[in-house]
Design a protein that fits this description.
7 strands, alpha+beta, elongated
Length: 260
C-alpha cells in the first residue's frame, strides 16, 4: 500500500516536471526604435536694406528717399517678418538726377507713393517674372499703382504706364528679399497721368565750319592780285621827275638874275 502511494506520487511529480519543461518560453517583444524628429529649417538671414544698398552700388539717392519717407521700415518688416518676402526695383543715382525737377514738384505723400511703387509685396526670382506677363501686378503703393512685366528672352521689361524700363542686374536675389537694378525711375500713372511724354529726338550733329584762310595767305593773295602794290605807277614817277626839274630851272634863273 505504501509502495503504491509512493509510485503514484512519483509519477505525478514526473508528469508535472515534464509538463513544465515542455513549455516554450517566448522571448520579449523588441522595443520599437523612435522615429527621429527632423531638424527645423534654418531661419533666413536678417535683411539689412541700409547696409545692402550702401555696399551694392550707387543707390544712395534711393536709400535717402527710403529713410526720409519712412518707407525703409515698411520694407524691412516685409522682408524679415513675413513669409511672402519682398521684391525691390532700385534706380541708380544718375537716374534720379535726371528726374530731380520732376520729383521736386511732388508733395511728401506723393513722393512716398513713388517710393512704395518700386516694390512688390512678394519675393520673385527672375525666372518667375514670365508668369506675371498676363496681368497687372500690385505694388506696395496699392490701389491703381500697378506694374506690367514682360519677359523678352530672359530680359525683364517693366511698364508703369508712364515710364518703361528694364532689369539690368540682380543686386540681391536670396529669399526673402530680391533687389533688382533698373535703368529708370518708375513713375506711376496714378500721379503723372496717362500722357506719356514723347522720346526726345536726338540733337543734330554740329555743322563743321570750313577752315578759314590764314592772314598770311590772304595778304599774299591780295598783294599778288594788286599791280599797284607790287610795282610803282609810271605816271606818278613822271610827275615826280617833272616837279623836281621845274624847281631846278627856277633856282638857276634866280642865280643869274642876282649876278646881273
Amino acid at each position: 500500500m505504501e509502495f503504491s502511494m509512493f509510485f503514484i506520487l512519483s509519477n505525478t511529480l514526473l508528469l508535472l516536471s515534464s509538463s513544465a519543461f515542455g513549455k516554450t518560453v517566448s522571448p520579449p517583444a523588441p522595443t520599437p526604435t523612435p522615429t527621429p524628429t527632423p531638424a527645423p529649417a534654418p531661419a533666413p538671414d536678417y535683411v539689412n536694406l541700409t547696409e545692402l544698398l550702401t555696399v551694392a552700388g550707387p543707390f544712395h539717392t534711393f536709400l535717402n528717399y527710403l529713410e526720409s519717407t519712412k518707407v525703409l521700415d515698411t520694407f524691412q518688416n516685409q522682408a524679415n517678418n513675413t513669409e511672402e518676402g519682398i521684391t525691390i526695383f532700385v534706380p541708380k543715382d544718375s537716374d534720379f538726377a535726371s528726374k530731380k525737377k520732376t520729383l521736386s514738384n511732388l508733395t511728401q505723400e506723393q513722393l512716398k507713393q513713388v517710393i512704395l511703387f518700386h516694390a512688390l509685396p512678394h519675393f520673385y526670382s527672375l525666372a518667375e517674372f514670365k508668369n506675371l506677363s498676363e496681368t497687372s501686378t500690385p505694388t506696395f503703393a496699392g490701389g491703381d499703382y500697378t506694374l506690367n512685366f514682360t519677359d523678352d528672352s530672359g530680359t525683364v521689361h517693366i511698364s508703369s504706364g508712364w515710364a518703361k524700363t528694364k532689369v539690368t542686374s540682380a543686386v540681391h536675389a536670396t529669399v526673402p528679399c530680391a533687389v533688382y537694378e533698373v535703368d529708370k525711375v518708375l513713375l506711376p500713372e496714378a500721379i503723372f497721368g496717362t500722357d506719356i511724354p514723347p522720346t526726345p529726338a536726338p540733337a543734330p550733329a554740329p555743322a563743321v565750319a570750313p577752315a578759314a584762310d590764314s592772314p598770311t595767305e590772304h595778304s599774299a593773295d591780295s598783294k599778288a592780285s594788286s599791280p599797284s602794290s607790287s610795282q610803282p605807277d609810271g605816271s606818278s614817277a613822271s610827275k615826280t621827275i617833272i616837279s623836281h626839274g621845274g624847281s631846278l630851272v627856277l633856282a638857276t634863273f634866280g642865280v643869274v638874275m642876282m649876278l646881273l
